[in-house]
Amino acid sequence: xxxxxxxxxxxxxxxxxxxxxxxxxxxxxxxxxxxxxxxxxxxxxxxxxxxxxxxxxxxxxxxxxxxxxxxxxxxxxxxxxxxxxxxxxxxxxxxxxxxxxxxxxxxxxxxxxxxxxxxxxxxxxxxxxxxxxxxxxxxxxxxxxxxxxxxxxxxxxxxxxxxxxxxxxxxxxxxxxxxxxxxxxxxxxxxxxxxxxxxxxxxxxxxxxxxxxxxxxxxxxxxxxxxxxxxxxxxxxxxxxxxxxxxxxxxxxxxxxxxxxxxxxxxxxxxxxxxxxxxxxxxxxxxxxxx
Length: 291
Known about the structure:
Layout (H helix, E strand, L loop, with lengths): L1 H43 L15 H17 L4 H19 L4 H6 L3 H31 L12 H27 L6 H18 L17 H23 L5 H24 L10 H4 L2
Helix pairs in contact: 1-2, 1-9, 2-3, 3-5, 3-7, 6-7, 7-8, 7-9, 8-9
Protein name: DUF998 domain-containing protein
Keywords: Membrane, Transmembrane, Transmembrane helix
């Protein structure tokens, strides 16, 4: 019995370490892109107008790898029902940011016809793969009760947020399918995915404000003001986006992207610190199970 107990404790320790490193990876992965951008800027004496502008450059593989990895980690991470739902959506949108860069239409015009068709086919295949795999993921999640279903629909606030997220998701899918069929510019796919990613992350952060209308238990860890400030700053970034664009600042998207990434990195730091020493062997708190 003692050996069995020790074996269980070891397995629990492994599970806890896995969760810790999943959180840490969401902090470490962006560092890869930061280093690549710095090296690129030093070598070429310039900074692109957005992160995804590196898509057709030497940092393409690293950019795609970073965004896809981030998307996967966001989906894999499990938290309270509303946060889990929002981060799943954020991970979904991150995939499109990775595979459909901003101003792809302009980039395609620089290629010869044969290269254009190959690039368009590559984007179409990527879009189809994301949608199919996501559909399978949702199906399996519902079959195994992994998908949160209605656990987060316990208040009018969560219902409105969920309906809003679902409507935005449907509109985005229509846009993606339309652009994939059209296959010439893929206009607004990247921008929409980025805006919806930020919105989804905002919902995830809002779930930690300590309001019972958003989460069954207080998961703010005593730092409610930190989450509130983060949420306001993310909203301010979305407002600043068109203002900076109209001001003619070429690096507007680049600035907003890294601004939002920095805010989310701090949110993830708060979460990692709050749950670092939580003993999962004692069971998940009710906020994580929806009970």
